[in-house]
Amino acid sequence: xxxxxxxxxxxxxxxxxxxxxxxxxxxxxxxxxxxxxxxxxxxxxxxxxxxxxxxxxxxxxxxxxxxxxxxxxxxxxxxxxxxxxxxxxxxxxxx
Amino acid sequence: xxxxxxxxxxxxxxxxxxxxxxxxxxxxxxxxxxxxxxxxxxxxxxxxxxxxxxxxxxxxxxxxxxxxxxxxxxxxxxxxxxxxxxxxxxxxxxxxxxxxxxxxxxxxxxxxxxxxxxxxxxxxxxxxxxxxxxxxxxxxxxxxxxxxxxxxxxxxxxxxxxxxxxxxxxxxxxxxxxxxxxxxxxxxxxxxxxxxxxxxxxxxxxxxxxxxxxxxxxxxxxxxxxxxxxxxxxxxxxxxxxxxxxxxxxxxxxxxxxxxxxxxxxxxxxxxxxxxxxxxxxxxxxxxxxxxxxxxxxxxxxxxxxxxxxxxxxxxxxxxxxxxxxxxxxxxxxxxxxxxxxxxxxxxxxxxxxxxxxxxxxxxxxxxxxxxxxxxxxxxxxxxxxxxxxxxxxxxxxxxxxxxxxxxxxxxxxxxxxxxxxxxxxxxxxxxxxxxxxxxxxxxxxxxxxxxxxxxxxxxxxxxxxxxxxxxxxxxxxxxxxxxxxxxxxxxxx
Lengths: 95, 494
Hints:
The complex is a heterodimer of chains A (95) and B (494). Chain A is mainly alpha-helical and 95 residues long.
């Protein structure tokens, strides 16, 4: 399957990665190569096969739904590029 | 004692307990070796102060007689593991400056056992790569060379720094992680041992996530015994990782008898590639003979869906990665792009991720986004998950026929040169052709060095075991190691 430039641009947008216009043709070509490789999967008869959910057949451990941690605002914010007054700061989201 | 850094973990443990050497001496020797080896690009964040503090505590503990096997043993830690207060970047620019406020479960367990951290090790960015060339820190270099040819070779990837550091005797062992072969391929390229345990053996908590249904941590060491010792300390149930198995962890080292009489070893015909180099073909045949001579029964087997493992992997892994890497948005940690006047939150995300992620990571995130997008989810992602079910069933079928372990080559070639012009990303993906099936099936797999090619480069064989039977797998690997008698070391040029 061949990926066109518009599709490459749409995927970049969905992935929230800025790709300059002049880089799109090469990107589309790479996607086409990778997807071409993946297309081999169409040769496999998967009729009636369940998609794998968990590689080892075991029930995930359950725990009580209780508070086990907290009260460490300073640690949570310690690595933030911009933190103010106990919050993460970001550009204006709503006008 | 001389050449302290050349000690194996088992030897150092015994010497520490006898009082022949102290952890401080061992650690100092490693730190010195690391400082002389910057040309290898293996250690990317050195932590001498942490190391010396841990070494002193370890010596006290050994004196007090309370010394687990790893007490006082200097290790390197892959940059993918979050280590408290120490840079942990997954070799990505998007995590520039990130210092976790917490410690990963695996490194906590190692440090609780008294292990010493020498520093953080180079790797491919977010563990996406097979040559360590996607790292923001630059390449890690293989200590091995082709005879007198000084061409720089890859140590493999993604755990390239770990492999280079262990092979060059900069540390006694290292942590690695393996999503499609990232422990076993670099181990094979550098003449060391690396095991990926069964999915769920090691907690993934605090390890930067790539593809959560495939990622597993494991040790990279100088021999099989060391792998057994280190793996035991890394394994165990963790309430913070709901996929970690609540199973007892056996004493793996005690299971190393070298006796594999009556074990049945399968040789899968689908692993014979048309363009396989003669050296790999010969190595595989020799391995088969060695196990047979050791008393194992050899059976030719078929794993019919092998061919589809790589394409399935290159749907599932990018899909999971695109979801896992959505967290790098410039808000909570790491890099945030400088914004222009009027830029809003979307521009912040897009610019941050364009600047922070390297080309291979961007590619995989976008491929993952595509295969999960509306209209393609069934055609790609669900189909790949169905094929994954079939790949796992291939293994279940042969295990049900009485196969105890499967012998394959670890890699389709010896270490290749760095900077090789790879125009098609798929070409690089083929490195994982023998290892990726194991991740898809959640099985334990180990790479053991068994020979050299004509140019003097190490080659490894892979053994694949039944789920949760790492002890038995390690014992088969031990028998192979003893028969192969691989002792070659790279000559020091760095």
